[in-house]
Structures are given as structure tokens and as C-alpha cells.
Amino acid sequence: MLKGRHLLDPMDFSLEEIEEILNLGEKISKNPEKFSKACQGKILATLFYEPSTRTRFSFEAAMLRLGGQVIGFSEPNSSSVAKGESIADTIRTIACYADIAVIRHPKEGAPRVAAMYSKIPVINAGDGGHQHPTQTLTDLLTIKSLKGRLSNLTIGLCGDLKFGRTVHSLIKAMSRYKDNKFILISPKELRVPDYIKREVLQKNNIEFLEVERIEDVIEKLDILYMTRVQRERFFNEEEYLRLKDSYILDNSKLKNAKEDMIILHPLPRVNEIAVEVDEDKRAKYFEQAKYGMFVRMALIIKLLGVEEC
Ligand code: CP
Fold it and tell me: Alphabetically, which GO biological process terms does the record hold (predicted)?
């Protein structure tokens, strides 16, 4: 039963519950019009303490396409946060006005604190370098729709695997499906944190390999998941400048890739995928952004427990 629940971590939902959301997301993607009144009379609040394009707009578009309405802020200084209000008091207040809240925050764990004080479902829309569970739902729906399965895949994750919260969430989620393997492509300085390797990969006997060059492994991949170097999480600008262009995927690097490999990226992109790659049929990152809206429509319906059409 998903009605009234929070989504703070990709592991909060069972595999069956995720499947329920993905199945509904797939149904919505095929006929969104059919759901245009599902959330009439309901209000979604978006509390964004950090910048966003896809997550905020896709949540807002999702609620509007479901016939509901949206309130919120994208700039915390325009709310009483600027006067020093705590996240606990903010969510208690928002819960008086809205039926469901989406929170992005630079501090790891902030949405969890909000959930502790909230009478309405709270969705984590990204907390610091920690987790981004609705990006994971987006990635799962994209992979399921385009590859036809979530198991038996070789997944290459490339770029900033240290600070990239989407990568941390995706490893957790894909580790729950059978026979998936990970190839972790990053400079030494930006490797996946040890706690994820230990507590997720090693603990579950998941096969993984750490390498530094895309060209050495690209022919093995079913999915290449590119990520941006997360400038906002670096303590040292010089270190960021040194590492920011570690990977630039271009047509020459795709030479040996499988014909049916898919290229994903949570976006925004900076330099890590050359614009020429956008024309390659394997480039699916803008399609991925669209699946993000459909899966968020499904998530809102499930957490509100409104009638499906
Ligand atoms: N993928 C993602 O979270 O994008 P935004 O930062 O634009 O929301």
C-alpha cells in the first residue's frame, strides 16, 4: 500500500511496489490524456532549496497533467526560510495547504527530517550528494521501456561517481535485480564511495569493476550512464577545474559500442557528452527526461491513493 507513504530513499519501496509504479508509469506514457482528471482538487507543493530544471518542472507538469494544482518556491530566499525558519516548521505549515510535498535540499537527510514532522507524503527530490530516488524511478522506467528488462544488464556508470547522487541511487536500485553487473568508470578521485561498494555491491555479491577509460570497456555495455562533474559539491575549485573534463563522450569513443546500447544521462550536461552524440540513435537522455514526468505522475497517484482511471 503506497497511499500516504514518503519516498526518501530508493530502498523505501519493495520491488513489487516499484513494479506497481513503473507499470502505471508505462500505462500513463501510452495514454496520458486518460489520467487528466486523476488529481483534481489536489495540491502539490514543491520546496526547492537548490536549483533544478527537470525534477521541479517534471513534478509540476506531472501534477498539472493530472488535473491538480501546484504551489511552492524554487528560491528559498523568497520564503520565510530567509528569516531562519526551520525545515520542520516549514513542512508543518505546508502540510496545512498541500496534499503532497517534494523537497530538494543541499543537506543530506533534510527531506527525512521534514518527513518526521509531516502529515502529508514527502518526496526526496535530491539531498546533497546522497540520494535522488525519483531520478532512479525515471531511470528504471526508461531502462524497462527501452531495454525491455531490468535484469541481466551490464551498466557502465561514468564521470563523477563520488558526488553524483543519481549514481548512488541507481546502483542501489539496480542491485536488487538479478544478474546485473556494474562497470564504474571514473578518475581515482571521483570513485564510488566505499560505503556503497561495501554495503550494496560487496554485501550482495554484485559483480563490479572500476576502470578509468571508457574506451577499454565500452564494447561490453548495455547501458552507458554518463554524469556531470558536480562542481557545487567540490571544496576546492582547482580540483574541480582539473577533473571537470575527465570524460567527453563523442562519436569516436562510441565506435566499438553495441548497436543496441543506450546512452543515458540524468542531465544537466556540461561537456561530458559532445553535442554530435545527440544525433546517434543510442542517445536517449532527452527521452529519459520525458519518462521522468510519466513516472512522477504515477508516483503522485500512488502516494495520494487517488483512483486510477
Ligand atoms: N536530473 C536532475 O535532477 O535534473 P535537475 O537538477 O535539473 O532537476
Answer: 'de novo' pyrimidine nucleobase biosynthetic process; 'de novo' UMP biosynthetic process; amino acid metabolic process
pLDDT tens track for 73-131: 999 988 898 899 999 999 999 999 999 999 999 999 999 999 999 999 999 999 988 88
Q: Is residue 25 part of a domain?
A: yes
Cα torsion angle, 218, 220, 224, 228, sign: negative
Atom of ligand 1 nearest to the CA of 126: 3
Measured in Å, residue 123 CA sits from the centre of ligand 1 at 14
Q: What confidence score (pLDDT) does residue 226 get?
A: 97
On whether residue 194 sits in a domain, the answer given is yes
Secondary structure (H, E, C), 128-160: CCCECHHHHHHHHHHHHHHHCCCCCCEEEEECC
**106 in Cβ contact with 50 (< 8 Å):** yes
In the prediction, which pLDDT does 309 show? 63
Question: Is residue 309 a part of any domain in this protein?
Answer: no
Q: Domain tally for the chain?
A: 2
Q: Which of 48, 50, 55 most suits a substitution to test ligand 1, by most atoms within 8 Å of the C-beta? A: 55
Q: Are residues 15 and 97 in the same domain?
A: yes
Strands 223-226 and 154-158: parallel
How far apart, in whole angstroms, are the C-alpha atoms of residue 168 and residue 180?
15
Instruction: Supply 263's cell numbers.
Output: 546512452
> In terms of domains, do 96 and 64 share one?
yes
Residue 43: its H or E element: strand 43-48
CA distance 187 to 250: 18
Residues whose beta carbon lies within 6 Å of some atom of ligand 1: 52-55, 126, 135, 266-268
Q: CB pairs under 8 A, 24+ apart, for 85-89?
A: 87/113, 87/114, 87/117, 88/113, 88/114, 88/116, 88/117
